[in-house]
Fold each of these.
Amino acid sequence: MKIDVDKIPEEGLNLVEKLDPEKISLDVGLQGVNFIESIDAKANVRKSGAEVFIDVSLESPVEYTCSRCLAKFRDVFKKAFNVNYEVKPGDVLEVDEDIRQEMILDSPMKVMCKPDCEGLCPNCGQNLNVAKCECEK
């Protein structure tokens, strides 16, 4: 998401973009998070003197992999945040890195399909949320 500082009107600017997760280098798939579609990004941009204030909201369908039972499930990733920049005339702001960092910070460290997920049996691999296994305790 690029913003030309000289093109921000006094009343502000509203931007709507679809971001490709690969183009903003989101490697959260290693953490069990997979963005399955583009990310809907909306930004409200205001300029005051030598500062630009941006309110960003993001939304995207996501496929998670549970870290306990390895089941896949879908949800919607939503994030809203604010950033501001000191600018000079002629500057062009690139907001993608801030978006990337905010999304990584907001991604769960440990994804679980439900709070009481029982995980997999360490002996036979049975998903204990689906059925009990015959292994000796």
Amino acid sequence: MSRRNTAVKREVVADPIYNSTVVTKLVNQVMLDGKRGLAQRIVYSAMNKAGEKLGLEPMTALTNALENIKPVLETKARRVGGANFQVPMEIREDRRQTLAIRWIVEYSRKRTGERGMENKLAAEIVDACNLTGGAVKKKDDMHRQAEANKAFAHYRW
């Protein structure tokens, strides 16, 4: 991490179909080895499958899933007097979104039972809308840890 300047936030271009930066960020997270076309095909078909299963518009299904995954609190290590404390802190909105997208892709890749990334991603979106699945469990674990360390909240900086 640079001590001199803060990194400049780059604007993400909205995707051509849904005109949404969230979908572009999801495509970027799914993309491996610069294969954007393949990543777009995976994300769009996964959104369509999830929308069909839920009976919603694809963009609505993705938005609902991400809202159910976004964490509100996280713990950060803080060293005080030679001891490390896990201090619960609120998360900025852009980091909440980034974590939600990262987790949904991570737990999609870890899924077993479905074949193909588009089926795995669609299933994870459906599970997130229904408040089940690995990404929602990760959020709940993070909130539980923050709640358990609430006593150290006065070390916040």
Amino acid sequence: MRKLIAGMKISVDGKIEGPEGYADWVEAWSDDYGLMQQVDACLLGANMYPGYEQYWTAIQNEPDKPLWITGRVPTPKEVEYARFAALTPHYVLSSTLTSALWPRTSFIRGLEGIAALRQQPGKDIYLVGGARTTASLIDAGLVDELRLIVYPLIAGEGKALFAMTERRRGLELRNVQQLQGGRVSLTYGIG
């Protein structure tokens, strides 16, 4: 069975967004949590997908131009991830969305669709997010591994990654790695 691996960037106090609605402390969204060689599909929630598609399409189409959202030119790793995203099948968990710009995008209507996707042959699946989708899939017992990049700051107000989680989950620490800028990469198995 394919593993479903969630990857998220968070502050020390567990926030994925500040009070303005975005993680202004994240300099680049290209961190792939060491997953690009391990996965052959991505899964996102309906709220996150449209902006994700727009962001990575903009980088793929104009890698030398500043992005509207950041005001800066994409990094080489962002350009590399944009290419990966364009070639990788994406699945969107949604009961309402029916179309996408990327031709390799499919829609999954419920948890049983995700369970069926995990049964298909292939490499592992990268659960890109967002927070509500990640928390609900952890609650449903469908997420096998959680990879976090923790930023050395206290965000205070904002959206917490686990605010939606309904029940306690045991985690098994599998890897810790110190990154540049005081960030820490944590990998947990979910019990």
Amino acid sequence: MKNIVIAGVGGQGTLLSSVILGQVALKLGYDVKISEVHGMAQRGGSVVTYVRIGDKGEKVYSPIIDPGQADILLGFEQLETLRWLPYAGKDCKIYSNTQQILPMPVITGAAKYPDDIPGTVKKHFDDAVFVDALSLAVQAGSVRAVNVVLLGVMAKEMDIDEAVWMDVIGSTVKPAFKEINEKAFLLGNKEVI
């Protein structure tokens, strides 16, 4: 079983990422369950989705991932990566965007954005990967492609043919955004980590 937690803020495409991952798993013959979006889906609110992929022939009965059970944590924003760190299992692989999106309590001065989140995360998971996915998304043609950039980064360590990812991305996103998302995936996949 592979448990994947995808954390971000509203508007970053956590749901699209989970759909792409789910479709890749189904295309390869795995059973998969995807959670509903949990959290404040409007722009700026914390959002998380869970993707559970069974091993070959294994049935997945629930999409829910408990704390300490994630094999992969995909964070689209630094604070969200830190916020969902308790869900990471002891051998969890963490991929995070370096972008900071200030939540309302920080904007209003009621709270402070934590210092050195990558350093804090790496104290517990020294091989955590932090990537400037925002600049790669801009290079691909849209700031909204951060999610697909990070899928590309994560896919580097998965034994799944690039053609499968391209096929699923092409059939999942709207035709007008197909080229941008394919480029975003490839830029993330080629990023040196």
